[in-house]
Design a protein that fits this description.
There is one protein chain. With 398 residues, the protein is of the alpha+beta class. It has three domains: 278 residues, no CATH class; 51 residues; 46 residues, no CATH class. The chain contains 14 helices and 14 strands. The chain has a four-stranded antiparallel β-sheet, with no helix packed on it. The protein has a three-stranded antiparallel β-sheet with strand order 5-4-14. A three-stranded antiparallel β-sheet has the order 7-6-11. A hairpin with a 2-residue loop joins strand 6 and strand 7. The longest helix is centred in the C-terminal third of the chain and has 28 residues.
């Protein structure tokens, strides 16, 4: 060590101790204990989950996203001639449209906690957006000095099992419950118990219907049987009395054979009540008003109140996460300093009927917030020749 070495800054060493995290390997194990993993597709077989995913993804996918700018006078101006909003709303690439891209992104976000979109650029100009299938993606993280993390996102090809690496800045990353800015937690991780319970209830109900409501039981035989005789007796009993087509048949047993039921029936289990409770829990997972999935559980007096709750507690956190990802990955640093930002237009969600829509526009026009033509544009009506504001004398004199 030299005399002046004490003034030399220690070189940062990147610890290449990688932590591979597969985003597509998130899975559930059924309570039946057969070791089979429940995938995203199996979770989608739960009607309440499928309805919730469809409702949330379709609601956000239909909302347009616009680019705005705040000038030095704090006035907000919508930017209309930007390629990025065309890619987000209309045609992100050669095959997909904007609706499908946003819908698939939200599905990945809800199930797996992360949605990745590859940006294709030439210099600073965006050319296309491509969805990265989350099931085929994995993340390898590296740590510097014990606290600074970098990551590589890997995508497995369909052929040959080859991997393609992406740097984080190449992707638009929409994350749920993320602690590192690269990975997140979806409902398959955070709410596995209730999803497994719903799968178990479905499988149990299916088994009851398949067996024609014949409960699990034991055949007691007084004489000793060989292995072949046991199998033959079991198969014969199942063929005659098992299945929905044999429901209601009278059981006739030979002398020396006794049937004993060893399982609970659906009434004893209160299966219908349990399924209702499970649906309520699934609605809580997604922060959806239960009346949107179950008409018997109407809590609010109007559709508008339902939509307000749905927007504030369910959609708004997801929309904010998407907007933050767009602002981080699709804006230049100079644009961020100049006040550019992306924002979804959620105004249409709060107007559920034509009457409510017209009433809100009339109130805005009478209050002087909209001019006549601005109000007509909201209602998709053509402009009139002479536009004016509905101001009273007090406002004019002031």
């Amino acid at each position: 060590m030299g005399v002046f070495d004490i003034f030399t800054k220690e070189k940062e060493v990147e610890e290449r101790g990688s932590q591979p995290m597969s985003m597509g390997a998130v899975s559930l194990t059924s309570y039946y204990g057969d070791g089979k993993l429940a995938s995203e597709e199996e979770a989608m077989k739960i009607p309440a989950v499928a309805a919730a995913i469809e409702l949330i993804s379709s609601s956000i996918a239909q909302l347009p996203v616009y680019l705005y700018k705040v000038d030095e006078n704090n006035e907000i101006e919508r930017v209309t001639d930007d390629k990025r909003t065309f890619l987000l709303n209309d045609e992100p690439n050669e095959l997909m449209n904007g609706h499908n891209l946003k819908k698939s992104m939200i599905r990945d976000y809800l199930f797996h906690g992360a949605a990745y979109t590859k940006t294709e650029k030439f210099r600073n100009n965006f050319l296309a957006l491509y969805r990265i299938p989350i099931k085929n993606a994995s993340v390898t993280k590296y740590r510097q000095n014990g606290y600074k993390e970098t990551a590589v996102i890997n995508l497995q090809h369909d052929t040959g099992g080859e991997m393609h690496e992406f740097e984080p800045e190449e992707l638009i990353r929409v994350l749920r419950n993320s602690g590192d800015g690269v990975t997140g937690e979806g409902i398959l991780n955070t709410n596995s118990d209730i999803i497994k319970l719903a799968i178990d209830e479905m499988n149990y109900t299916k088994g009851i219907l398949k067996n024609g409501a014949l409960p699990l039981g034991i055949l007691n035989v007084q004489s000793k049987l060989t292995g072949k005789a046991v199998d033959k007796l079991r198969d014969s009993f199942q063929n005659i009395y098992g299945g929905a087509g044999n429901s209601g048949k009278t059981i006739v047993l030979e002398d020396g054979v006794e049937y004993q039921s060893v399982s609970l029936n659906p009434n004893d289990l209160e299966l219908t009540s349990s399924k209702k409770n499970t649906m309520s829990e699934i609605c809580r997972i997604f922060n959806i008003p239960e009346s949107m999935l179950n008409s018997d559980a109407n809590k609010y007096a109007s559709n508008e109140q339902n939509n307000i709750y749905f927007l504030q507690h369910c959609l708004s956190p997801i929309i904010t996460s998407i907007e933050a990802a767009y602002n981080k990955s699709m804006l230049l640093e100079s644009e961020k300093r100049q006040g550019y930002y992306f924002r979804f237009d959620v105004s249409e969600m709060l107007r559920t009927t034509e009457k409510e829509k017209v009433a809100s526009v009339v109130a805005a026009v009478n209050g002087g917030l909209y001019s006549i033509n601005e109000g007509r544009r909201v209602l998709d009506r053509p402009n009139i020749r002479d536009d004016y504001f509905m101001w009273n004398l007090g406002k004019v004199y002031y």
